[in-house]
Amino acid sequence: MATLSVCQTQLGGFSFENCKRNAVLETEVTKVGCRMPAARKTGTTIVGVVFKDGLVLGADTRATEGMIVADKNCSKIHYISPNIYCCGAGTAADTEMTTQIISSNLELHSLSTGRLPRVATANRMLKQMLFRYQGHIGAALVLGGMDCNGPHLYSIYPHGSTDKLPYVTMGSGSLAAMAVFEDRYKQDMEEEDAKRLVRDAIAAGIFNDLGSGSNIDLCVITKGRVDYLRPHDMANKKGVRTGSYKYKRGTTGVLTKTVTKLDLEVVEETIQTMDTS
Amino acid sequence: MLTELCSVPVTGMGQHVGAYGVQDTLRSGFSSVKNELLPSHALELSEKNFQLNQDKMNFSTLRNIQGLHAPLKLQMEYRAARQIQRLPFLQSSHLALDTLKGNDESISFEDILNDPAQSEMVGEPHIMVEYKLGLM
């Protein structure tokens, strides 16, 4: 009501006005027999491993919407700061917005302190925010980066608990990936061994879990250098058709043919790259 | 201005009680017990009181570390900064208050979602000023 806005000051942030209406709508819709639209999730395999001079983060690239693949090549390794990257599993919008907010906050913080941000700072900010929203923000994250104290790897759960470990896996394919890690992880590996291990762990998740698929992305973070390898390995290439089903020219008889030339003038030419995959 | 360690108690959605102790139908519309007894979302109450709880916690910690003068001085500054605003129907930038609270160096959902400066509903200016001045 208009008079209500007079008495209460407007606040930003989440608004719960439509929750009751949505609950009523959901009961009505299920009575008719339809389903409410599902949020796009990234049923995922994301992993991280610490090696001798840094760490490797890995992720698959499939985003699902219920039983349908919504995006065959989505990017799950998000930028947080020049030395910190974060893989996200769970609801795609939640991971995207959460990592962007924390990245902005970390940039402001590092401008204020004048130092390179630390991974523990990003971890603390993320866990405080996720705990504040009691798990309703469905973002399970693998946070990794290199700072003045060496390489650090954290796993952050949607309710706000965190673990600091040398190797972590999250997402629906985490069990398959963890099996590979538990078998072959050694302390102080070389970079190539670590990359191969992460690639194999993600491949295990891709081939054994329906929620993960498509390509393998890798991000290698060492002191002063970040290699974002997208795609590192195309594990699932789309098949090529062996025969052509097109009809030959002349199959349909042509009765008449008229050609009209359109006088067009090229005013501007721009190129926009699409993610075709 | 005593600072306690307890958080703001969970009191249901709060009936807008008018001057005579009954529901103020003119200002807050018809009342419905079902609407006001339970929150519509699990986070609604905790989000409504989040800033208050944070402030209480911070002030009591400050009192324990630095003594009573520290939260008293800060609360005085907050009160002063809160008074320099525009008229109620115009958007004020809250610059001084934000700087005091440290919100100028962070971004959260309050800055991104439902920005009050871009809300589609505008209050009636005369009524809002009358309400603020207590003439209504």
Automatic annotation (TrEMBL), chain A:
Gene Ontology molecular function: any one: threonine-type endopeptidase activity
Q: Which domain of life is it from?
A: Eukaryota
Under the subunit heading, UniProt states: Component of the proteasome complex.
PANTHER family assigned to the protein according to its UniProt record, in alphabetical order: METALLOPROTEASE TLDD (PTHR32194), PROTEASOME SUBUNIT BETA TYPE-7 (PTHR32194:SF4)
Q: What is this protein called?
A: Proteasome subunit beta
> Does the record's keyword annotation contain Cell wall biogenesis/degradation?
no
Keyword entries, A-Z: Cytoplasm, Hydrolase, Nucleus, Protease, Proteasome, Threonine protease
Automatic annotation (TrEMBL), chain B:
One of the protein's GO biological processes: proteasome assembly
Report which superkingdom the organism of origin falls in.
Eukaryota
Q: Does the keyword Chaperone apply?
A: yes
- Keyword tags: Chaperone
Where is it found, in Gene Ontology cellular component terms? Answer: cytoplasm; nucleus
Q: Tell me one Pfam family matched here.
A: UMP1
PANTHER family documented for this protein: PROTEASOME MATURATION PROTEIN (PTHR12828:SF3), PROTEASOME MATURATION PROTEIN UMP1 (PTHR12828)
Write out the similarity annotation: Belongs to the POMP/UMP1 family.
Protein name (database record): Proteasome maturation protein
Question: What species is this protein from?
Answer: Hucho hucho (huchen)
Lineage of the organism: Eukaryota, Metazoa, Chordata, Craniata, Vertebrata
